[in-house]
Structure formats: structure tokens, C-alpha cells
Automatic annotation (TrEMBL):
Residues 1-103 form the NADH:ubiquinone oxidoreductase chain 4 N-terminal domain. It is a multi-pass membrane protein. Keywords: Electron transport, Membrane, Mitochondrion, NAD, Respiratory chain, Signal, Translocase, Transmembrane, Transmembrane helix, Transport, Ubiquinone. It is an enzyme of class 7 (translocase). It catalyses: a ubiquinone + NADH + 5 H(+)(in) = a ubiquinol + NAD(+) + 4 H(+)(out). InterPro entries: NADH4_N, NADH_UbQ_OxRdtase, ND/Mrp_TM. GO terms for molecular function: NADH dehydrogenase (ubiquinone) activity; NADH dehydrogenase activity; ubiquinone binding. It comes from the Eukaryota. This is NADH-ubiquinone oxidoreductase chain 4. Residues 1-17 form the signal peptide. The gene is ND4. It is found in: Mitochondrion membrane. It comes from Prosopocoilus astacoides blanchardi. GO terms for biological process: ATP synthesis coupled electron transport; electron transport coupled proton transport.
Length: 445
């Protein structure tokens, strides 16, 4: 694992080299292919070097991070063509990738916590440095304070755990801590990061103000940090979790339903996609909190699927924004008349967002429905509502943006570039092909 960290550190001069924008993207892709050869098929850590190693959960999350980061460069043509500090952008992206890699590959709780919090800084720089609107400062403050308020109690609980157990290695974790305050302090930071309903207000603001690369990394990887942390931490808090988790399952499902209704009232394309993330991650939260095998596997499938699908939708929103100069659904109308090829991608990614076959979202939802209904039959009520309304707002997004009367004069008649179609294909293809090998998500327990 250390060889990848060293490789990324040695990429720092490449970030500042002249005319190296696309070379960086090629190197990221090369890293994806290198890392894909290190497959881990179980809960045991392999490829251990220093305090880094991968098991199946880490492997999938790191591969997703590398893939999304390479696509972020491909999506950021606007930064490259305008020469708006493009080298600094590449450097920020590299630092973000290093922090995510070290977070997911860490086998020690304190190292995990340090890089988990450090990943906030480059994300903040992306939003404030390359965001579109003047409100990006406020969005950055929201992101910073939501995370900081929740993260400091976790640091104290880590010290407490070390004082009592004597080790912070994941290998030595066992369910020994059995009081409520420790549970709250340890999990709150992950609930904010997912984000759970009630602590989700930073997410729509951050998405709306962020550049396309910021939205992609937030939706594609940063939200997954919360789910990943939950999966790691739940095993030390089982005595409390079996009594308390019902609260979070209820909040996740009811909140997912409320947010689905909020999606139907959005006029901003990016805000609609951002709120849909809260609904999907509410389902994943419910699956993790049931503490059963189906729930964990389903949450993992949902996180991978959502990372690819939501990131692709943000790319589509940015493609329209670059041509029209607005994200309003009232102005983004009738695009099927001007860009029919792009409408196909709107349809494919919108249908994946509503868990239509053969997308990985469908596999995730089936597994989560199994998990939650076996936990309590009453979950079926809100699961059915969330499934129905996710179809409703996905169709609303597609129909409202593609059909209707064109606002002539506001749109440049560009049919899209090869780069844009390749970018969308590289989101959609793994999303719909991974379901053929869905059993890899169930090999860990």
C-alpha cells in the first residue's frame, strides 16, 4: 500500500508542470488499473505495509475514489481552458486523493480519524476557490462547522477507548464499550458526513456552490466516508446499538421520505440531485443500523451505486450549466430538441437513480429492503414510499429538463464533445456492469 502513497506524493511536481492537465488524468487512470490488481476478497487485510492495508470494504472504496478523482479532471475542462489556477486545482485534487486513500486504507482508528478530518480541508479549498456563486463562503462555513462540531467528541471517545482497551487497531476491536454517551460521540461525525436527515443542511449548500469537481467528489466519495466509518465502528458498540439503533433507522427512513418530497419542489437541478443523495444515504443508514449481513452488504452496494450515479448526474447538470449559464429547471427546458444524444444520457442516469434494472442501485435497494423488512415489517411503509417518490423525482428531473418549450436565444447550439460523452459513459458503464458480478459485495462478513 505504501507504494501508492509514495506514487501520489511524487505526483506533486507533475501537478505544477506546464501543460500537464491531461497527463495527470492518464496517471490517475493508470493508478486505477494498478490498484485493481490488488483485489481483496474477504474481511482479512492483505497487502499490509506500515499501518495501511486493504480488505474488501477498503478496496472497493479506494477504487471508487481513484475512479471518481480521474473523472473529476476530465469533467473540469472549464478550469483547464480558462487557465484559472489549473495547476493549483490539480494539486488540491491530489491532496484530497491522498487523504481519502489513507483514510480508507488505514488499519488504525487514530490514523483513520486524522485523515478523515484532513479530507475536509482540500474539499473546502475546492468549494471556496473554484465555486460559482458568491454564497460559496457560506457553504464552506456550513461544511466546516457541521463537521467540526461533530468530530471533536469523536476524538475524545477515541482517547477513552484507548485508555480502556489499550489498542486502536481495527484487528483488536471487540464489543466492549456499552454506554450511550460513547455511542453518540463516536457515531455523530459519521451521521453528519453521510448525511442523516436533521444534520443534512450543509450538503445542498455545498453542492450548489461547488464546482463540478467538488460536487462529484462530495457525492461520489465524501458521503461514503460516513457509511464506511459506521461499518467499522458498529462492531465495538453492539451492546448499545441493539437498543438505540431503532431511532436512527426511523430517522433514516422517515427523513428519506421527507427529502424525496422536498426533491419534487426543487427548481435548481443541482439542489434536486443533492437532496436525492440524502434520501439514498438514508436507506443505506437504515441498512447499516439493522446490524445484519444483508444490511451491510446492501449499504455497500448502495454506496458504490450512488457514488457513480450521482456523480454522473452532476456532470450532466454541469454540461447544461456551461452552455446555458443557469441551473434553473425553468430555463433548462426542451433540451431533447437541441441535444438528443445528451438526452439519452439524461435518461440512462435518471433511470439508474430510480433503481431501474440493470443498475447496481437496484441490487442495493433489493438487499436493503430484505434487511429492513426482516428487521421490522413496519419499515415496508416508508420503503415503498421512498421507492415510489425516488421514481417520481427522477422522472420529474428528466421530463422537466428534456421536454417543453425551448428558451431560444439563451442556448448555444453545441451537440456535446467526445470528452463529455466519454465522461458520462465512464460513469454509466461500471454502474450497470457491476451488477453482473454482484456477489463480490457479499463475500465479506
Amino acid at each position: 500500500m505504501m507504494k501508492f502513497v509514495v506514487m501520489m506524493i511524487f505526483m506533486v511536481p507533475l501537478s505544477f508542470a506546464k501543460k500537464s492537465f491531461w497527463i495527470n488524468q492518464c496517471v490517475y487512470m493508470f493508478m486505477v488499473f494498478m490498484f485493481s490488481g490488488m483485489m481483496s476478497m474477504g474481511w482479512e487485510y492483505v497487502n499490509i505495509s506500515y499501518f495501511w492495508g486493504v480488505d474488501l470494504l477498503s478496496y472497493i472504496m479506494i477504487l471508487l475514489s481513484l475512479w471518481i478523482c480521474s473523472l473529476m479532471i476530465m469533467a473540469s475542462m472549464g478550469i483547464y481552458s480558462s487557465s484559472y489556477f489549473s495547476n493549483l486545482f490539480l494539486f488540491t485534487l491530489l491532496i484530497l486523493l491522498i487523504s481519502l486513500f489513507c483514510t480508507f486504507a488505514s488499519m488504525n482508528l487514530l490514523v483513520f480519524y486524522l485523515f478523515f478530518e484532513f479530507s475536509l480541508i482540500p474539499t473546502l479549498v475546492l468549494i471556496i476557490g473554484w465555486g460559482y456563486q458568491p454564497e460559496r463562503i457560506q457553504a464552506g462555513v456550513y461544511l466546516l462547522f457541521y463537521t467540526l462540531v461533530a468530530s471533536l467528541p469523536m476524538m475524545v471517545s477515541i482517547f477513552y477507548y484507548y485508555y480502556n482497551i489499550g489498542s486502536l487497531d481495527f484487528f483488536f476491536f471487540y464489543n466492549d464499550v456499552g454506554f450511550f454517551m460513547f455511542y453518540v460521540c463516536m457515531t455523530m461525525v459519521f451521521l453528519v458526513k453521510m448525511p442523516m436527515y436533521f444534520v443534512h443542511l450543509w450538503l445542498p449548500k455545498a453542492h450548489v456552490e461547488a464546482p463540478v469537481s467538488g460536487s462529484m467528489i462530495l457525492a461520489g466519495v465524501m458521503l461514503k466516508l460516513g457509511g464506511y466509518g459506521m461499518m467499522r465502528m458498529m462492531q465495538i458498540m453492539i451492546p448499545v446499538a441493539v437498543k438505540v439503533n431503532i431511532v436512527f433507522v426511523v430517522v433514516g427512513l422517515v427523513g428519506g421520505f421527507y427529502v424525496s418530497l422536498i426533491c419534487l419542489r426543487q427548481s435548481d437541478v443541482k439542489a434536486l440531485i443533492a437532496y436525492s443523495s440524502v434520501a439514498h444515504m438514508g436507506l443505506a443508514l437504515g441498512g447499516i443500523m439493522t446490524l445484519n449481513y444483508w444490511g451491510l452488504s446492501g449499504a455497500l452496494a448502495m454506496m458504490v451505486a450512488h457514488g457513480l450515479c450521482s456523480s454522473g448526474l452532476f456532470c450532466l447538470a454541469n454540461i447544461s450549466y456551461e452552455r446555458l449559464g443557469s441551473r434553473s429547471l425553468y430555463l433548462n427546458k426542451g433540451l431533447i430538441n437541441l441535444m438528443p444524444s445528451m438526452s439519452l444520457w439524461w435518461f440512462l442516469l435518471s433511470s439508474s437513480n430510480m433503481a431501474a434494472p440493470p443498475s447496481l442501485n437496484l441490487l442495493g435497494e433489493i438487499m436493503l429492503i430484505n434487511s429492513l423488512v426482516s428487521w421490522s415489517v413496519l419499515c415496508m411503509i416508508f420503503l415503498s414510499l421512498i421507492s415510489f417518490f425516488s421514481a417520481a423525482y427522477s422522472l420529474f428531473l428528466y421530463a422537466y429538463s428534456q421536454h417543453g418549450k425551448i428558451f431560444s436565444g439563451l442556448y448555444s447550439f453545441s451537440m456535446g464533445t467526445v470528452r463529455e460523452y466519454l465522461l458520462l459513459f465512464m460513469h454509466w458503464f461500471p454502474l450497470n456492469v457491476l451488477i453482473l458480478k454482484g456477489d463480490f459485495l457479499t463475500l465479506w462478513s
